[in-house]
Write a structure and sequence with these properties.
single chain, alpha/beta, TIM Barrel, 2 domains, three-stranded antiparallel β-sheet, 10 helices
Length: 314
């Protein structure tokens, strides 16, 4: 069976061996973040609907999980914002009832938790990882470039409500963008927001692959440590690059070889690789990260975006 809505399993820095579940078309989202590794949002929306067939996703999950693959998590993630899909609750309920041995995670920008229906639909998930990059409205508009109907107070209030009702774990992710959200004022606003939300932990992340804009840069180790100290929260973790995977034990050698064979012939953007391979951007990113760390792939920004090419040829 060829899966249209599942990808991986892929290695995750936080979730181990993760089977991805993609519920929206590329790139359907309520944000158009400047740091997004999947590229620019082409459909900026807060409309919830059945973007892909719910029954089809459930059928694929049933086929895959019935084989009892070795997984750490089944993860809602992929090409956009998963909570935009109106069937996420039904899919989550199916996983809990049919395959309770698998933990389920949700990677989300956190934009829709002001809606009670969304909070109810994700109530059976084990771990929710929402993002919150600022506590200031002006910076929210500059970094996340959200749908006009959204405000930072609406986001924070929604996450507060989620914390009150949700019985699982919440790992709040903050993406540190030097020059935008790392000033003392910004960190203090985030500290206050974190105290309101009371997550089980806070994850500090920064740029790993090229983002949507050219000028954004990664925060240094010192930047992240200063940021963590400013938050003054008991559970803060810095998401560092993983070490190269020895022997490719967590990667599909066929997929790695397919990507290398493609970019040896001509440089490709993320969109090119997704179209040619049938893989999702999240999955492609994992492979490109591994190949880059091994020195086999390099990247360069061109007119159509960031191009990836074999390290020995250009």
């Amino acid at each position: 069976m060829t899966y249209q809505h599942l990808f991986g399993p892929v290695p995750s820095r936080r979730l181990g061996r993760s089977l991805g579940v993609d519920l929206v078309p590329l790139k359907t989202c309520s944000y158009n973040c400047i740091y997004c590794e999947c590229g620019r949002t082409t459909h900026l929306t807060t409309e919830r609907k059945e973007y892909v067939p719910t029954a089809g996703v459930i059928s694929e999950l049933d086929d895959c999980l019935a084989k009892h693959p070795s997984l750490d998590y089944v993860t809602f993630s992929g090409s956009g914002e998963p909570t935009l899909h109106s069937g996420i609750g039904k899919i989550s309920d199916f996983l809990a009832e049919r395959y309770p041995e698998y933990r389920v995670a949700l990677l989300t920008n956190g934009s829709l938790f002001s809606l009670q229906e969304v909070r109810e639909e994700v109530s059976g998930i084990d771990v929710i990882i929402p993002s919150l990059d600022t506590g200031e409205e002006r910076t929210f508009r500059r970094i996340d470039r959200p749908h006009p109907s959204l405000s930072i107070e609406k986001i924070i209030s929604g996450l507060e409500a989620l914390r009150e009702e949700f019985k699982g774990e919440i790992w709040l992710e903050i993406f540190v963008v030097p020059g935008l959200n790392d000033t003392e004022t910004e960190i203090e606003a985030l500290r206050k927001a974190v105290l309101r939300i009371r997550p089980d932990r806070v994850d500090l992340n920064t740029l790993d692959r090229p983002g949507v804009v050219t000028w954004i840069r990664a925060a240094s180790e010192e930047d992240l440590e200063r940021f963590a100290a400013g938050l003054d929260y008991p559970a803060v973790e810095m998401i560092r690059k993983p070490p190269p995977t020895e022997g490719g034990e967590r990667f599909s050698e066929d997929a790695l070889d397919s990507i290398m064979q493609t970019i040896r012939r001509r440089p490709c953007t993320m969109e090119d690789l997704c179209e040619m391979s049938g893989m999702r951007p999240t999955e492609i990113n994992k492979y490109l990260r591994q190949l880059t760390m091994e020195g086999k792939v390099m990247e360069e920004r061109g007119k159509r975006g960031v191009f990836f090419f074999a390290g020995s040829v250009k």
